[in-house]
Automatic annotation (TrEMBL):
One of its GO terms (molecular function) is DNA binding. This is XRE family transcriptional regulator. Pfam families: HTH_3. Gene3D superfamilies: lambda repressor-like DNA-binding domains (1.10.260.40). Residues 13-66 form the HTH cro/C1-type domain.
Amino acid sequence: MSTATQNHIGRKISRIRELRDMKQEVLATALGVSQQTISNIENSEIIEEETLEKIAEVLGVSAKAIQNFNEETVLNIISNSFTSNDSSTINAINVQPTFNPIDKLIETYGEKEKLYERLLQAEKEKIAYLEKLIK
Protein backbone atom coordinates (compact mmCIF):
# COMPACT_ATOMS: atom_id res chain seq x y z
CA MET A 1 0.00 0.00 0.00
CA SER A 2 1.41 3.38 -0.93
CA THR A 3 1.68 6.21 1.57
CA ALA A 4 -1.12 8.13 -0.18
CA THR A 5 -3.44 5.14 0.11
CA GLN A 6 -2.47 4.51 3.74
CA ASN A 7 -3.70 7.98 4.75
CA HIS A 8 -6.78 8.04 2.50
CA ILE A 9 -9.60 7.69 5.05
CA GLY A 10 -12.29 7.38 2.36
CA ARG A 11 -10.63 4.33 0.82
CA LYS A 12 -10.24 2.78 4.26
CA ILE A 13 -13.95 3.28 4.94
CA SER A 14 -14.74 1.76 1.55
CA ARG A 15 -12.58 -1.29 2.21
CA ILE A 16 -13.96 -1.87 5.71
CA ARG A 17 -17.49 -1.52 4.32
CA GLU A 18 -16.68 -4.10 1.63
CA LEU A 19 -15.15 -6.47 4.19
CA ARG A 20 -18.36 -6.15 6.19
CA ASP A 21 -20.26 -7.08 2.99
CA MET A 22 -22.21 -3.82 3.20
CA LYS A 23 -23.39 -1.84 0.19
CA GLN A 24 -23.12 1.93 -0.02
CA GLU A 25 -26.91 2.16 0.01
CA VAL A 26 -27.12 0.36 3.36
CA LEU A 27 -24.49 2.63 4.92
CA ALA A 28 -26.26 5.67 3.45
CA THR A 29 -29.61 4.61 4.88
CA ALA A 30 -28.10 4.00 8.32
CA LEU A 31 -26.54 7.47 8.28
CA GLY A 32 -29.59 9.17 6.78
CA VAL A 33 -27.76 10.40 3.69
CA SER A 34 -27.79 9.54 -0.01
CA GLN A 35 -25.69 6.87 -1.68
CA GLN A 36 -23.96 9.63 -3.63
CA THR A 37 -22.87 11.23 -0.34
CA ILE A 38 -21.28 7.93 0.72
CA SER A 39 -19.54 7.71 -2.65
CA ASN A 40 -18.18 11.23 -2.16
CA ILE A 41 -17.02 10.38 1.38
CA GLU A 42 -15.22 7.26 0.11
CA ASN A 43 -13.45 9.38 -2.50
CA SER A 44 -12.36 11.96 0.09
CA GLU A 45 -8.90 11.76 1.59
CA ILE A 46 -9.90 13.64 4.75
CA ILE A 47 -13.22 13.35 6.61
CA GLU A 48 -14.62 15.39 9.48
CA GLU A 49 -14.19 13.72 12.86
CA GLU A 50 -17.94 13.78 13.60
CA THR A 51 -18.77 12.08 10.29
CA LEU A 52 -16.01 9.53 10.85
CA GLU A 53 -17.45 8.69 14.28
CA LYS A 54 -20.93 8.12 12.83
CA ILE A 55 -19.58 5.94 10.03
CA ALA A 56 -17.43 3.96 12.47
CA GLU A 57 -20.46 3.30 14.65
CA VAL A 58 -22.50 1.97 11.72
CA LEU A 59 -19.56 -0.20 10.55
CA GLY A 60 -19.13 -1.56 14.06
CA VAL A 61 -15.57 -0.35 14.52
CA SER A 62 -13.94 2.61 16.23
CA ALA A 63 -12.88 5.76 14.41
CA LYS A 64 -9.32 4.96 15.49
CA ALA A 65 -9.62 1.53 13.83
CA ILE A 66 -10.60 3.20 10.56
CA GLN A 67 -7.70 5.64 10.81
CA ASN A 68 -5.23 2.82 11.55
CA PHE A 69 -6.71 0.33 9.08
CA ASN A 70 -4.09 -1.50 7.06
CA GLU A 71 -5.18 -4.22 4.64
CA GLU A 72 -1.85 -6.05 4.86
CA THR A 73 -2.28 -6.37 8.62
CA VAL A 74 -5.79 -7.74 8.17
CA LEU A 75 -4.57 -10.34 5.67
CA ASN A 76 -1.74 -11.33 8.02
CA ILE A 77 -4.18 -11.77 10.90
CA ILE A 78 -6.47 -13.92 8.74
CA SER A 79 -3.66 -16.10 7.42
CA ASN A 80 -2.07 -16.50 10.86
CA SER A 81 -5.33 -17.35 12.61
CA PHE A 82 -6.45 -20.01 10.10
CA THR A 83 -6.02 -23.44 11.62
CA SER A 84 -6.60 -26.84 10.16
CA ASN A 85 -7.83 -29.81 12.14
CA ASP A 86 -6.21 -32.13 9.62
CA SER A 87 -2.57 -32.60 10.54
CA SER A 88 -1.81 -34.41 7.29
CA THR A 89 -2.23 -31.29 5.17
CA ILE A 90 -1.19 -27.71 5.70
CA ASN A 91 -3.96 -25.12 5.51
CA ALA A 92 -6.53 -27.65 4.30
CA ILE A 93 -10.13 -27.73 5.34
CA ASN A 94 -11.03 -30.88 7.20
CA VAL A 95 -14.62 -31.73 6.40
CA GLN A 96 -16.28 -34.01 8.89
CA PRO A 97 -19.94 -34.48 8.03
CA THR A 98 -22.43 -34.24 10.87
CA PHE A 99 -24.60 -36.90 9.25
CA ASN A 100 -24.19 -40.56 8.52
CA PRO A 101 -23.50 -40.96 4.77
CA ILE A 102 -25.10 -44.41 4.74
CA ASP A 103 -28.33 -42.96 6.16
CA LYS A 104 -28.28 -40.32 3.44
CA LEU A 105 -27.76 -43.00 0.78
CA ILE A 106 -30.70 -45.03 2.08
CA GLU A 107 -32.82 -41.87 2.19
CA THR A 108 -31.88 -41.12 -1.43
CA TYR A 109 -32.86 -44.62 -2.55
CA GLY A 110 -36.20 -44.22 -0.73
CA GLU A 111 -36.86 -40.94 -2.56
CA LYS A 112 -35.86 -42.55 -5.86
CA GLU A 113 -38.32 -45.39 -5.24
CA LYS A 114 -41.15 -42.94 -4.49
CA LEU A 115 -40.40 -40.99 -7.66
CA TYR A 116 -40.42 -44.22 -9.68
CA GLU A 117 -43.79 -45.20 -8.20
CA ARG A 118 -45.26 -41.78 -9.06
CA LEU A 119 -43.92 -42.05 -12.61
CA LEU A 120 -45.37 -45.54 -12.95
CA GLN A 121 -48.75 -44.32 -11.65
CA ALA A 122 -48.72 -41.41 -14.12
CA GLU A 123 -48.00 -43.81 -16.98
CA LYS A 124 -50.86 -46.09 -15.88
CA GLU A 125 -53.22 -43.11 -15.81
CA LYS A 126 -52.03 -42.03 -19.25
CA ILE A 127 -52.65 -45.52 -20.67
CA ALA A 128 -56.11 -45.65 -19.09
CA TYR A 129 -56.94 -42.22 -20.55
CA LEU A 130 -55.73 -43.25 -24.03
CA GLU A 131 -57.75 -46.49 -23.87
CA LYS A 132 -60.79 -44.45 -22.88
CA LEU A 133 -60.26 -42.17 -25.90
CA ILE A 134 -59.95 -45.14 -28.26
CA LYS A 135 -63.25 -46.66 -27.05
